[in-house]
Design goal:
- It is globular, with a radius of gyration of 18 Å.
- Helix 2 packs antiparallel against helix 8, helix 5 crosses helix 6 and helix 7 crosses helix 8.
- The two termini are about 35 Å apart.
- About 60% of the residues lie in helices and about 0% in strands.
- The mean pLDDT is about 95.
- It folds into two domains: about 90 residues, Orthogonal Bundle (Endonuclease Iii, domain 2); about 110 residues, Hypothetical protein, domain 2 (Endonuclease III, domain 1).
- With about 220 residues, the chain is mainly α.
- It has eleven helices and no strands.
- The structure holds a DNA duplex (13 and 12 nucleotides).
DNA sequence: GACCAGGTCCTTG
DNA sequence: CAAGGACATGGT
């Protein structure tokens, strides 16, 4: 067994963040389908805005695979307007729901498939890219997958860790095998990204300063 | 008013 | 492959 510096650093970061921010309890949703909807709606969009869209769907009793699959696209677009890119997202959301309904009947039925297979399947859907697919796998289907988003890439870059999404994913999944750890870690990284590791960083009080190249003025 | 937000797709070089 | 534009609302 060889101890890698990178692994130790990643593990250390996880524990610092957990201590600093506490347990995140992601994904904030009542059903697995709600995770899927949220994952689409939050693409390049603040969760604050997504919540409004989800609220609209719930108030219309539409947060259901079968119902969205039958909903008029223009009406759907109107409801999810606050989440931005709403015309695109309405089309994609309805299409994705239709296809999943046809192929599986419901989200839960996707759990029986191999992780690799579901990943491939999800990526084939228009509007589902790497991050959305990973989010669905981890948070809707409870598959042990690490979600790499733009915050993660930025944070790893600032820490001097691997910056390519597949490298990040490999490294993290090599350390954390447990679904709950993977869920927690991604949520914690988003929390750090939102509050400290921004494009214009808030280094004061950032819990990861001692690991940050940027803070030490070594790059950027 | 500028900039950013829990991306993805399509087109170009 | 990398880079650039389109998609759009709402908060700081």
């Amino acid at each position: 067994m060889i101890f890698s510096t990178i692994n130790e650093e990643i593990e250390k970061i996880y524990h610092i963040l957990l201590e600093f921010f506490g347990h995140q309890g992601w994904w904030p949703a009542e059903t697995s389908y709600e995770v899927v909807v949220g994952a689409i709606l939050t693409q390049n969009t603040s969760w604050r805005n997504v919540k409004k869209a989800i609220k609209n769907l719930k108030e219309n009793n539409l947060l259901d695979l079968k119902k969205i699959a039958e909903t008029d696209i223009d009406f759907l677009a109107e409801l999810i307007k606050p989440s931005g890119f709403y015309r695109q997202k309405a089309i994609r959301l309805k299409n994705i729901s239709l296809v999943i309904l046809k192929d599986f009947g419901n989200i839960e039925n996707m759990r029986n498939m191999d992780t690799e297979k579901v990943m491939e399947y999800l990526l084939s859907l228009n509007g589902v890219g790497c991050e959305t697919a990973e989010s669905i796998l981890l948070y809707a289907l409870d598959k042990p997958v690490f979600v790499v988003d733009s915050y993660t890439i930025r944070i790893f870059g600032r820490m001097g860790l691997p910056e390519k999404r597949e490298d990040i994913k490999k490294n993290v999944m090599n350390i954390f095998k447990d679904v709950n750890d993977l869920k927690e870690f991604h949520a914690l990284l988003v929390e750090l990204g939102k509050n400290y590791c921004k494009k214009i960083p808030v280094c004061n009080e950032c819990p990861l300063n001692e690991y940050c190249r940027y803070y030490r003025g070594e790059n950027e």
